[in-house]
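A brief tutorial aside. Many learners find it easier to grasp structure tokens once they have seen a single protein encoded end to end. The record that follows does exactly this for Isopentenyl-diphosphate delta-isomerase. Read the sequence first, then the structure, and try to relate runs of similar tokens to stretches of the chain.
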Amino acid sequence: MAELDRKDSHLALCLEEEVEFPGASGFAGLRFDHDALPELDRDEVDTGVELFGKRLAAPIVIASMTGGTPRAGELNRRLALAAEACGVGMALGSQRKMLEDPSTRATFAVRDAAPGIPLLFGNVGAVQLNYGVGAREVRALVEGAGCDAFYFHLNPLQEAIQPGGDTRFSGLLPKLREVVPQAGVPVLLKEVGSGISRTTAARIRDLPVAGVETSGVGGTSWSKVESLRTADPVQRGTGELFARWGVPTAESVAICREALPDRVVIASGGIRNGIEAAKALALGADAVSVALPLLRAADRSAEDALLALRQLVEELRTAMFVTGCRTVAELRLRPLARARDYTAEG
Ligand SMILES: Cc1cc2nc3c(=O)[nH]c(=O)nc-3n(C[C@H](O)[C@H](O)[C@H](O)COP(=O)(O)O)c2cc1C
């Protein structure tokens, strides 16, 4: 029996199983000061930002997820149409397949369907620098999909649990130092669900990268996903144990903001509504990125993907209104208090 393609098996598990840990992201423990006298008309609220020289209607990016199979290509197309219609950014999933099998290129060619996406990110695993990928390949991925920026993902835990994972993670720092300036576009490093810790952020500070994406604990857990995929009971148990391993997203955003004051920080990992997005921005993020809920919406239909994105923007706008923020720059300066005996969201 042919093995289900790895990307399709990831998609199926993420769409059908419990693979996230909402509540572990740390946002519920933070609270805005509600302002009943915001001295602001709702119509004045402007969610727009500039990121990497591109104008976004809201500080939102559809996170790196997919590409490489017909199903993935259709999901990318739907996500791309939603990103274009809402004027937000979008990231491609790992483009490694584009290098291995050029016939998959069309599944990443989202600009064919949605040429107006304001900001498009490419993606490949940083560990692939130890498996034959170099500056030439990265440039080919950027140019091949028309990307404005590029993510290297850092996923040691996922690779450790994944059957046959690529686990040679030594020697990546000098390779990143060499390859990043040759990518031709701004490069960011991202986790995939275990967060960027203080230790990692300190290492990243010495690299010529433009920014980071946190992908902290609280959202999709790749240890959990891989534990569901593996047939090996020992690996399955290990994946279960590490399912919530890492830095909660709210903490990771604060850490990255402090450790990397002059770089872009994108918050991700369990951001599930506009209030959590607003909290991530108030912690210092420049933008937020969302994966799983948008994937599930896009799997239902292109219309649902658009609706989910519009809802997120609307919730963010409302959070800005009731905290008296005319602009995202103002929101980023709003203090957050530790929530104690509050049960209401917010
Ligand atoms: C189906 C799926 C596929 C993903 N594939 C990639 C990938 O190829 N490269 C990557 O950097 N991150 C990948 N991610 C991780 C996301 O970009 C994101 O970091 C993580 O899911 C946390 O966000 P969330 O809690 O909103 O899902 C994937 C996530 C999902 C749900």
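Self-check: DSSP finds 15 helices and twelve strands in the chain. If you spotted this yourself, you are ready for the next section.
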